[in-house]
Design brief:
The chain has 268 residues and is an alpha+beta fold. It has helices spanning 3-14, 26-33, 83-86, 174-177, 227-235, 254-262; strands at 35-49, 53-57, 63-66, 79-82, 95-105, 109-118, 122-128, 131-154, 165-171, 179-186, 195-209. Strands 1, 2, 3, 4, 5, 6, 7, 8, 9, 10 and 11 form an eleven-stranded antiparallel beta sheet that branches. It binds calcium ion (CA) (3 copies).
């Protein structure tokens, strides 16, 4: 008996059906999704201090935020905000670690806030609308607050995630809780007159996540883990088909099959 047949027989005997798709909160479902797609929908910028000016910031391209547990508090909803991805034209290549905090959790909806700062204390060339100025950046501060709600399971509306999504995160709390601030000394001269603050205000953003990722056995990326996933793994058993390789170790084998079986029946 081949290994594959032995495994399937064992499964049939034990009838492993674990269904954890229901009775979770949206916070757990968001974490389970492993990543969100995110798009800045535009806003205004205000610069004051050593330079005083203002203008509009165009909507950005959709980006992906893989979730991590950056502060080791057991909640893997933290993200690394790359300024370069958010505002490519600014020329600031720094990351702000945004730590997730659950503000409220009503089960079917929740409010999550991501907050973080970076203090580079580096003289960096910053491109303000085509004018390149050296700035000794002392502080980068970011904060996002979003309302997480369920939506019908569907392909990622922002086209970033490889699996279907069933959660939408919309900006909430306005300017008070959604901040991207850059502070520093223009021309890298540390005098009071040179101290400048640049902030994005009246911005808006949207994000999508949830769903069932490949790592849980949803190898076809739809809204359930079922016999279609099982068949796909069996069909590709022994190959290196990355779509069917749930643990991304380069081989489709019994570990991947067990992942599908363990989560069999889950749906969103
Ligand atoms: Ca965390
Ligand atoms: Ca599936
Ligand atoms: Ca594998």
């Amino acid at each position: 008996m081949s290994r594959k047949v032995a495994l399937v027989s064992a499964i049939a005997l034990f009838g492993v059906v674990v269904n954890f798709g229901h009775a979770q909160t949206v916070v757990e479902e968001l974490e389970r999704g492993g990543a969100v797609s995110w798009r800045f929908l535009g806003g205004n910028y205000v610069i004051s201090g050593g330079i005083t000016t203002s203008g509009t910031v165009s909507p950005g391209s959709p980006i992906t935020f893989p979730f991590q547990d950056l502060n080791n508090d057991g909640l893997a909803l933290d993200i690394l905000l790359r300024i370069q991805d958010l505002i490519p034209d600014l020329g600031v290549n720094r990351d702000i670690p945004l730590i997730a905090q659950v503000i409220s959790n009503a089960g079917s909806s929740a409010v999550i806030q991501w907050t973080g700062a970076d203090n580079p204390n580096e003289c960096i060339q910053v491109d303000f609308d085509g004018t390149v100025i050296n700035v000794l950046i002392t502080e980068l501060f970011g904060q996002l607050r979003g309302l997480v709600e369920r939506i019908p399971c569907q392909p990622d509306p922002l086209g970033r995630l490889p699996h279907n999504t069933h959660l939408r995160v919309t900006m909430t709390g306005g300017n008070a809780f959604n901040v991207l601030r850059l502070r520093g000394y223009i021309f890298c001269v540390q005098t009071g007159q040179a101290f400048t603050t640049a902030e994005i205000v009246d911005g808006n953003w949207i994000s999508y996540g949830g769903g069932l990722p490949k790592s849980l056995g949803n190898v076809n990326g739809d809204c359930t883990i079922d016999d279609a996933d099982l068949l796909q793994v069996l069909f590709n058993f022994g190959s290196s088909d990355s779509a069917s390789d749930t643990n991304s170790d380069g081989t489709v084998d019994d570990a991947d099959l067990l992942t599908v079986l363990f989560n069999f029946g889950a749906s969103v």
